[in-house]
Amino acid sequence: MRTIKTMRTFRLALLSSIVCVCAQGNPILAQAAGELVSTDKFVLHKPLIPITQDFTLDNGLRVILSEDHCAPVAALALVYDVGARNERKGRSGFAHLFEHMMFEGSENVAKTEHFKYIESAGGTLNASTHADFTNYFEKMPSNQLELALWLESDRMRSLKVTPENFENQLQTVKEEKRSSIDNQPYAPAELKLDELAFDNWANAHPVIGDFQDLDNSSIEDVRQFFRTYYAPNNAVMAIVGDFDSTAVHKMVEKYFATIPRQPKPETPQVSEPAQKAAKYLKVEDQHAQMPGFWLSFKAPGKRDPDYYALNLLQNVLSAGDSSRLYQRMVKGDQIALTASAGYEERRGPSVFETFVLYKPGTTADQAREVLWSEINKLKKDPVSQEELEKAKNQILRSLFASNTSTSLQRSLGRAEMLAEYASFFGNPSLLDQDVDAYLNVTAADIQRVAGVIFTKENSTVVDVVPAAKKVSLRVD
Amino acid sequence: MHSRHIHIHFHFRHITVRTILSFLVALSTVPQAWAQSADSAGKKPASITVKTSTASGAESIAPENPSAQVKPEQWRKNPPTVPPPRPFKLPAIENYKLDNGLSVQLVEDHRFPFMTMALGIKIGSAVDPKDKLGLADMTAGMLNEGTTTRKSKEIADEVDFIGGALKATSDYDFTILSGSALSKYRDRLVNILSEVIFHPTFPENELSLAKTNLIEELAMKRSEPDFLVEERFNKVLFGNHPYAVVAPTPATVERLTRKDLQDFHDTYYLPNESTLVVVGDFDSAKIKDMIAGKFGATWKSGTLPLAETPKAVRQDSRKIYLVNRPGSVQSSIRIGNVAIARNDPDYFPMVVANQILGGAAHSRLFLNIREQKGYTYGAYSSVSAHRQPGSFAAEANVRTEVTAASLQEFLYELARIRNVKVSDKELADGKSYLVGSFQLGLESQSGLAQRLLEEKLFDLPSDYLETYTSKVMAVNTDQIRAVARKLIDENHLVIAVVGDSQKILPELQYFAPVEVYDTSGKLSSEAPTINVE
Q1: Which is more confident, B251 or A472?
Q2: With contacts defined as CB-CB under 8 Å, which chain B residues touch A405?
Q3: I want to staple B233 with a disulfide (CB 3.0 to 4.6 A). Which of A99, B187, B307, B334 is the partner?
Q4: Across chain A, what does the average pLDDT equal?
Q5: What ipTM does this complex have?
Q6: Inter-axis angle of helices B135-142 and B204-221, nearest 10
Q7: Counting one residue from A and one from B, how many pairs have CB atoms under 8 Å apart?
Q8: B319-517: which CATH topology?
Q9: Does CATH place domain B98-295 in 3.30.200.20?
């Protein structure tokens, strides 16, 4: 039955045998050719994402190349080590606004032409701003790769910021906030969740920022931000697809080598104190029709020792219709329309959230009591071996299914994972180790981590109550 | 739940034509990427001048270029010349038919230990009785909720354990059951998929819960502007035709019985004209055996009902249908008319025309309403070519204060593409984007499966995939203008707007007569206070 749950995704890559049955190309792993005929054996071949070259220019730009000649496609991901956590108070939303400015033109590329060049070359492109990084990426027919290098290098070296473009994108960002947050039920309350759960402003404030701060920002702020963070020594670029590494290495040198490095930016201070007492907030929502709440907990960051068990815990609670929260709250007690869990993992201190929309006839306290009882079960008893294996299979699914953010089927997914691992942890091949770490988690690990994380003292609750009168359901 | 931390820049419309994209929902576990696409329609900027800041007169020459120390490198002036594209080849597709009419398409792909399946049936919500709207979709959704051998939880346990997904959904014309799993468990996937399609029992208690929850979800939808604007738009456009229905009502959902679902399933889930697609890590010989066993002789063919041909709902004139959503900080605008069916001979020129107008970031609507004016996060257009003529629609969510100004820009762009030939560059860009998207989309198992389903369910020629690229590339600028005049019914546009009536009604009256509704769908007694000549 369809539900309103979201499936959580995992920052992992599990690339099994990249045996390429290509009509025209060569298999990229000659040694795996023997496994062309599929058997019932499930074999994980490492490296999960084969790396053909990994080099760093003199100016500090690290470049990772992974050849794959199965399809005439090339995907490029460029990660800059800057996010909302780098912003200073009074300038929230800046990293995201800056991401918009990156499409507004550089010395040799006029405003909007970045989109046009890639799309008219038959490619697609996007960018995203996070609490802990910003990435830019494009996917295109493989013969167009040099175009992408020209575009990315031009804006890295010579972004042009005019008052006109700045004003235009300021408006656009405001419309983005209105469209995806202000005009939607539950979204504004969700921003308040992080603001409350985190103590350190660097972690707590929303990526989208605050209108007042955006209005107070100036062009000089933008230019300063660019100088500080958009430097080659603060970036990692990964390219996956159908190209020749030797040729691309030369191209990268040509386009990027003359971009000067900048002083290394300050490392943001993101530590969080241990939480000693439960936090609570009630929010009235103008657009919500049903009441709901978040129950969240402070959690460790990516690749922390407990990170792997926590991701499996998330699966046990919330992945698929057989998951604990769905079965108890939606199907069993039937008190919730939706009940889900999500590990909002970051490079530093993170949060683990649960979200419930409860039905008429149930109160917030009653729904929370049921939710807590399910959480407490995981602290009291280890999960069964079957459930553990199921949770691990869901991890594998996130890597091999077609449309997850960590899908190895997608060349862009692979490029992003390479660039992010290299940027965050200095090693693009950590995916291999992560797989093992996941598969080695025991039921005892899960139980222990649940005990550490899921405590009342460590909890934050945000209740959302509809402010509007419930809309009558009659439709002509 | 929003993926809060990821403020992805773009709102990405994969294809401008809504076919059965949404059906492979079970295979998709990531929220839609937000893509920003801008298309500056061939406007060459004048030489970049340094703007002075008017606020602080002292700053006479503000350096625009933050990296002032970078020496200009003349060789960067123009984009690089690139080599010709590498040949694009479709994977090998094995195509055959069972005696009962079921079409089967197999594509082996051993790069990943994963398998994707989809069963498409040519029946959808268009056959829902008017008093039982939601029947087709509820039948599809309930397949997982119990079979003759397994309860709902057992099915869920099985699907989740094999690292899989299994979901059926319906749209107007089709029902798609899609499943996927780690290929190690491929036999179990085939088994569970065939079990739910052939032996569902629609248990009473599960149906009761599903109905209750759906009714709650419908209530929630009434606070979502995107839903409200589509609802009003379709209602006006299609009148009594089934395509008018965007969602069932609580009353019609309440009426659904176990027997209704069972009858619907037994009557309509037939092999003739249905299609089974399997892509991924499997052995063809073994899979064919399984398919013959599960989907062959035991599945009897029958007679599918004929589709009703809609009466063209002729709009008298241009009119605005305003759904009042008090406190709305944006207005959701949707403008359009009834357009084409999927098998229309003008399909490809229409798709290209739509791409130029509003398909992505390089398109006119985005460049104008967002990049130039800053009114919106994104403005697009789309053609929904169903088995029968669907809608053409241009849309955006705009700041409340610029609702009228935005509407003016929409009307300008809709007229312009009808009257003035598009430039060669715009045509080339539009075509290139479509061809690229098509090819890039085939990279994943679900992307390929979707295209294979599309070919069969819409009865497209068997060389559809092979000739897609050449058909797009063949479109010329004269054709664009000609089909734009058919695609966009300028004088009879339906304009649906969801927003704060108090703020926008006075401005909208100048465009066309306005009818006001509340969010429950009730026509409001609120009438415009002035008659605008």
Answers
A1: B251
A2: 30
A3: B334
A4: 89
A5: 0.90
A6: 130
A7: 429
A8: Cytochrome Bc1 Complex; Chain A, domain 1 (3.30.830)
A9: no
